């Protein structure tokens, strides 16, 4: 899935201790904050911390890895979508506002939200007048069309999201504008005039506005397109443009003089420049954030284990952090293709016997790990409703209930099965061990089966014949949505039609025809409120079948340096809103 | 120079090395004199302290692990009490040394010329060019053919004899007034030995320097020395002119040495009278006379040999000293009646 | 001498080819042997949402369906004749020597390597100067004052230096000197020498010291052992007998001889470092070959891994060759004997 966690070399516990001892002076001047805002834990979680309209300064950002791609047509990381709004304008965007409102869409390049017609199969957008590329050329609907079409060339942009080629009514055998030159694509996207763009879909999709907010709708001028090399110099439409770009090392954004604030109600554009370093040692990033030598850890996945010890042990440092919930569920697939889990009572026994606290501890506890989950949907998804079909007093499981269901299942003394996990992930191993222990309380014996993560879904846990023949009754799994919406979150993990017999799908256990139908109905609904109301029933229906054992909803601990103003966590990206930051 | 003082005068020289096992008395109260133009041979088995003595005179010892006392007067200057820098300036200049085994004694990474030039330049403030000319000249004088070409060769490119000549050239480059040669011919074959000894003899005459030849080989001494000092266990046990030592030696150890001396004028190379036993450890010298455990005549001392250390006393010849408990007459008798005939019979 | 050099160069080229074939096999053949298909190899180059069709397209584009020898042949051909890569809108020609093309970053590998050599070179040279100065002088002093307090302190220190890993000393160094005291540059602040020599030195100072610390320790021990041996040699006594000042005796005669074995080790160490000071570059986020290798491995970017491996192998082989030749220069007995 998308917002891949980028846990690099993790420091040892001993090192963490040593750092916390050696560097406890890091927060000496925590009280001398001149900007007046008093730092406290979670101060930027649902409101703006240190609000400011002061312009100027340079924001320094660092990425522990390489940027996946700066090309709006191919980038597929949440942090990149968050940051891309500084130099690119998609048709719609998530509102740069704190709180739940930040997870709602607002027009950006378009004048208004999409207008559906034909029952949600046709979507029309009007583009604002006066928006220009950094070279002064006006942006037209054709630039948006070109941008979307080129992104469907998966041989050139294999890493990008594949929604458009899935939904658009493209001509048979269309391979993108490079290879299918001159092919008429008006049946998929038409541009009646320079300000209007119309998307024609194969099937109705009520949530198309979310696709219109993808970076793939950021206009690309055909004349400046260099294909896979375009990422070396993306032509800006936002308030910033590339001054330098050294792939794999660093790049710098400076003000784009052609950006007209009058065309843009969303962006404050406070800093004069963004200075981004790539491939920086992850532990060093944490230290620099804490010392004020760096402003933003751009991947927003949270501190490394070494710094975690330091931060948790020092109230002054902890006051400089936020702990947002992420739209990522760590869960366990309960495969009904493996006997005796084909019996619903045996699956329910697993649900009752599992110790969720152990699950949480395996992932690092409530601060760095996350909150215990009882549903598939995480709380920030619109339409989420809290419920718990398999309750236990303190989250550690209900042994009596589990035994009851085992008896009902005809396995009163328990049974044996296997649990798979990704060998490279110590947290998954710890989780598997925790489940092994808690299920053993009712006689369910688990055998641990680690597999390499590179082929985990294609060959092992996501390969149905393999699952069946190797009796992988349980498989550790995880999922995060491309955007915080029921469709984005559920479609890849509860729709039975994404399961491929050749392997490669995250969904391995959910094959409920009724759920497939419920999804189709919800997806076609163009009214957002009505659509959102349909996600939780799907969630509940899947939970009734007990084929998914939710573990925890992930959380991250992110550092909020004193050097920044206007800081808040975006509910859309679940890290700081990079578009709104200013220099304190 | 004070009246009556010789060019080189060593008085009660002691060089001791404290070790974990005890005090090593490598030189223990040595005294001797040497004038310019004359040659002193210091003779003894390995481990008798003769090399340490020579290094002591050169001032090459580590103050941190050795104790030195006594006096060394060289041309009126006292060396033992002088500062290290003063001695260093004398070293290689007024007093020089030739070492045994020139292959290991010369630096393998520098040319022969470089090593001679270095020796010259350290004491003469001249250009490299001048020093080089001097070095080539010197190599020629010690009998190295084509010195202007061989000057740029490395030591390993020289034959053994040539290396020893080069070593001598290096020692003589600063016209030293005192030259110490430590086993100068040991590593060489017999014909070359003779050449080298001739060379040293000639050069000494030419430079009029004082020469100390340190060796275990009385043949070398016979060839070169005017005076001879026999060392045993860090002490002088017999001293006298070469003729005295070879004609009328009075110490049983010297007799032993003479007996084990290979004779170039005889076809047989057998060592007919080897000295029994081995040299004493310089840490635990035997009680009484250091030589007593190996001495055939020890029973004739009446027990003195193993209890009382003998003093260095006047012997029969003029300027002849010996360290032995046996009465003078008895020594002379044994030499004349028992030892000498046996040696001549060889 | 000339034939010797030619023979050695030829052997070096052959060795590099063997290394390249072995590396290629490890990354391309071994996965096949343990059951990977062209498609599973291609999944490394596509997003997680990719359809089987996309995976197939990419596997085809990258030539994963071809026999392994053909893929290797293509790679070797690229080194000598260059290769062309389809970028969609354009075709990019990767001129010889084309050491592969990264489909993850869409860049040819060779310019990346060339771009990163100066960083690694700066780090290696600076550190080498420091560690030679400190290692040799500490080792020499230790040997001359054997058993003294200084000797024991230096050897204890050097034991610590050898045992402490760079990621530990580096992180502590950054924390204390960069972030607490502010004396040295924070991580990731490398600037090209040509851009600003002072910023270059400022950014590299701490990495130099940290890297040199580890090597100094090792070199101090080596020098000490070597000096103890050579200072007991006869030619040292000769040098003293010539009346040379003790400093000349120690340096010109003692150290000169003790240096020869150290030179060998230095050549190999330096060659290895040029291949990438992996830990140091990682800790200080220096964009050199070592960091490049780590990033390439993290991202599963095989052409880059292959390229940087070849580069490292090249440096080690060349360093070996240079050491052998230098040995002849340093030790006349080898040269002529």
UniProtKB/TrEMBL annotation, chain B:
Its main location: membrane. CDD domains: ABC_NikE_OppD_transporters. Pfam families: ABC_tran, oligo_HPY. It comes from Actinoplanes aureus. GO terms for cellular component: plasma membrane. SUPFAM superfamilies: P-loop containing nucleoside triphosphate hydrolases (SSF52540). It is a peripheral membrane protein. Belongs to the ABC transporter superfamily. GO terms for biological process: peptide transport. This is ABC transporter ATP-binding protein. Residues 8-258 form the ABC transporter domain. The keyword Nucleotide-binding applies.
Automatic annotation (TrEMBL), chain C:
Pfam families: BPD_transp_1 (PF00528), BPD_transp_1_N (PF19300). GO terms for biological process: transmembrane transport. Gene3D superfamilies: MetI-like. The keyword Transmembrane helix applies. SUPFAM superfamilies: MetI-like. Keywords: Cell membrane, Membrane, Transmembrane, Transmembrane helix, Transport. The chain crosses the membrane at residues 9-30, 119-144, 156-179, 199-217, 257-279, 305-330. Residues 117-327 form the ABC transmembrane type-1 domain. GO terms for cellular component: plasma membrane. Belongs to the binding-protein-dependent transport system permease family. This is ABC transporter permease. The lineage of its organism: Bacteria, Bacillati, Actinomycetota, Actinomycetes, Micromonosporales.
């Amino acid at each position: 899935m998308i917002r891949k966690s980028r846990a690099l070399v993790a420091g040892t516990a001993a090192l963490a201790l040593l750092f916390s001892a050696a560097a406890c002076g890091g927060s000496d001047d925590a009280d001398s904050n001149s900007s007046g805002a008093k730092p406290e834990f979670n101060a930027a979680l649902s409101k703006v911390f240190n609000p400011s309209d002061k312009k100027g300064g340079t924001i320094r950002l660092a990425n522990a890895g390489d940027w996946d791609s700066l090309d709006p047509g191919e980038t597929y990381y949440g942090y990149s979508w968050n940051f891309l709004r500084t130099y690119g304008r998609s048709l719609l965007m998530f509102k740069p506002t704190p709180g739940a409102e930040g997870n709602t869409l607002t027009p950006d390049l378009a004048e208004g939200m999409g207008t559906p017609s034909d029952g949600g199969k046709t979507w029309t957008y009007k583009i604002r007048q006066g928006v220009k590329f950094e070279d002064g050329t006006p942006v037209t609907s054709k630039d948006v069309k070109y941008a979307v079409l080129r992104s469907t060339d998966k041989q050139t942009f294999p890493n990008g999201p594949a929604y458009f080629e899935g939904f658009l009514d493209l001509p048979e055998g269309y391979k993108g504008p490079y290879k299918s030159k001159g092919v008429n694509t008006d049946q998929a996207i038409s541009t009646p005039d320079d300000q209007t763009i119309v998307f024609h879909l194969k099937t109705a999709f009520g949530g198309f506005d979310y696709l219109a907010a993808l970076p793939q709708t950021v206009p690309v001028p055909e004349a400046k397109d260099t294909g896979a090399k375009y990422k070396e110099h993306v032509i800006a439409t936002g308030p910033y443009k590339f001054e330098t770009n050294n792939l794999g090392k660093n790049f710098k954004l400076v003000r784009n003089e052609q950006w007209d604030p009058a065309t843009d109600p969303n962006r404050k554009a406070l800093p004069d420049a963004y200075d981004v370093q790539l491939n920086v040692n992850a532990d060093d990033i944490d230290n620099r954030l804490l010392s004020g030598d760096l402003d933003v850890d751009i991947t927003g996945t949270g501190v490394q284990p070494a710094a975690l010890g330091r931060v948790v042990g020092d109230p002054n440092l902890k006051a400089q952090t936020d702990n947002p919930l992420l739209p990522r569920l760590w869960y366990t697939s309960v495969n009904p293709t493996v006997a005796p889990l084909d019996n619903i009572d045996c699956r329910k026994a697993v649900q009752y016997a599992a110790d969720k606290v152990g699950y949480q501890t395996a992932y690092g506890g409530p601060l760095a790990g996350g909150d215990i989950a009882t549903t598939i949907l995480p709380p920030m998804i619109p339409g989420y409703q809290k419920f718990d079909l398999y309750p236990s007093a303190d989250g550690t499981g209900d042994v009596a209930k589990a035994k009851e269901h085992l008896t009902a299942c005809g396995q009163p003394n328990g049974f044996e099965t296997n649990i798979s996990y990704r060998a490279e992930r110590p947290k998954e191993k710890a989780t598997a061990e925790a489940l092994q222990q808690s299920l053993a309380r009712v006689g369910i014996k688990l055998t641990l089966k680690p597999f390499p993560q590179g082929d985990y879904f294609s060959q092992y846990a996501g390969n149905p014949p393999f699952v069946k023949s190797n009796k992988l009754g349980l498989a550790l799994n995880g999922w995060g949505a491309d955007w915080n919406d029921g469709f984005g979150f559920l479609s890849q993990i509860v729709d039975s039609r994404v399961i491929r017999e050749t392997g490669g799908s995250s969904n391995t256990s959910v094959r409920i025809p009724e759920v497939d139908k419920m999804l189709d109905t919800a997806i076609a609904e163009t009214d957002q409120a009505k659509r959102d109301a349909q996600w939780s029933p799907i969630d509940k229906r899947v939970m009734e079948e007990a084929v998914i054992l939710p573990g925890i909803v992930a959380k991250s601990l992110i550092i909020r340096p004193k050097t920044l103003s206007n800081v808040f966590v975006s509910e859309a990206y679940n890290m700081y809103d990079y578009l709104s930051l200013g220099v304190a | 120079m004070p009246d009556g003082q010789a060019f080189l005068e060593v008085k009660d020289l002691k060089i001791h090395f404290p070790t974990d096992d005890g005090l090593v008395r490598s030189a223990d109260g040595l005294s001797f004199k040497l004038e310019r133009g004359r040659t002193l041979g210091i003779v003894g088995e390995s481990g008798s302290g003769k090399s340490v003595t020579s290094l002591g005179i050169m001032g090459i010892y580590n103050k941190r692990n050795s104790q030195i006392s006594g006096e060394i007067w060289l041309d009126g200057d006292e060396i033992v009490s002088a500062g290290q820098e003063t001695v260093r300036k004398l070293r290689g200049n007024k007093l020089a040394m030739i070492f045994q085994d020139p292959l290991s004694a010369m630096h393998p990474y520098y040319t022969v010329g470089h090593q001679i030039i270095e020796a010259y330049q350290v004491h003469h403030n001249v250009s490299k060019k001048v020093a080089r000319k001097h070095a080539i000249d010197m190599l020629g004088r010690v009998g190295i053919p084509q010195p202007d070409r061989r000057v740029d060769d490395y030591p390993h490119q020289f034959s053994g004899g040539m290396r020893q000549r080069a070593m001598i050239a290096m020692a003589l480059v600063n016209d030293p007034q005192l030259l110490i040669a430590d086993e100068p011919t040991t590593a060489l074959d017999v014909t070359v030995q003779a050449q080298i000894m001739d060379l040293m003899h000639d050069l000494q005459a030419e430079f009029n320097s004082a020469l100390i030849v340190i060796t275990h080989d009385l043949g070398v001494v016979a060839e070169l020395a005017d005076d001879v000092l026999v060392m045993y266990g860090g002490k002088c046990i017999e001293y006298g002119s070469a003729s005295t030592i070879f004609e009328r030696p009075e110490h049983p150890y010297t007799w032993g040495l003479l007996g084990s001396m290979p004779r170039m004028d005889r076809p047989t190379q057998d060592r007919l009278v080897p000295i029994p036993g081995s040299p004493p450890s310089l840490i635990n010298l035997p009680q009484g006379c250091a030589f007593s455990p190996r001495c055939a005549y020890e029973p004739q001392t009446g027990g003195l040999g193993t209890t009382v250390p003998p003093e260095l006393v006047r012997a029969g010849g003029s300027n002849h000293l010996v360290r032995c408990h046996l009465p003078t007459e008895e020594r002379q008798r044994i030499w004349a009646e028992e030892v000498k005939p046996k040696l001549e019979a060889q | 001498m000339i034939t010797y050099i030619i023979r050695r160069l030829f052997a070096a080229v052959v060795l590099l080819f063997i290394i390249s074939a072995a590396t290629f096999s490890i990354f391309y053949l071994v996965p096949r042997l343990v059951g990977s298909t062209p498609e599973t190899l291609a999944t490394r180059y596509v997003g997680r949402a990719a359809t089987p069709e996309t995976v197939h397209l990419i596997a085809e584009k990258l030539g994963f369906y071809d026999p392994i020898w053909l893929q290797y042949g293509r790679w070797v051909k690229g080194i000598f004749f260059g290769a062309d890569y389809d970028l969609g809108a354009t075709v990019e020609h990767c001129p010889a020597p084309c050491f592969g093309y990264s489909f993850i970053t869409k860049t040819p590998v060779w310019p990346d390597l060339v771009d990163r050599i100066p960083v690694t070179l700066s780090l290696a040279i600076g550190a080498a100067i420091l560690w030679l100065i400190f290692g040799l002088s500490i080792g020499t002093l230790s040997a001359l004052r054997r058993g003294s307090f200084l000797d024991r302190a230096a050897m204890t220190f050097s034991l610590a230096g050898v045992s402490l890993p760079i990621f530990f000393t580096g992180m502590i160094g950054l924390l204390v000197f960069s972030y607490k005291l502010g004396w040295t540059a924070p991580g990731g602040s490398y600037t090209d020498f040509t851009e600003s020599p002072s910023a270059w030195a400022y950014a590299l100072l701490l990495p130099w010291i940290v890297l040199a610390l580890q090597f100094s320790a090792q070199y101090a021990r080596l020098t000490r052992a070597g000096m103890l041996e050579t200072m007991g040699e006869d030619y040292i006594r000769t040098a003293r007998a010539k009346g040379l000042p003790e400093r000349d005796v120690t340096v010109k005669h003692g150290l000169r001889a003790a240096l020869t074995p150290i030179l060998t080790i230095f050549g190999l160490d330096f060659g290895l470092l040029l291949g990438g000071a992996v830990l140091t570059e990682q800790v200080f986020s220096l964009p050199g070959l070592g960091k490049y290798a780590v990033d390439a491995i993290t991202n599963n970017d095989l052409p880059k891994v292959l390229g940087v491996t070849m580069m490292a192998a090249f440096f080690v082989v060349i360093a070996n060759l240079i050491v052998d030749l230098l040995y002849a220069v340093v030790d006349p007995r080898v040269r002529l004997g």
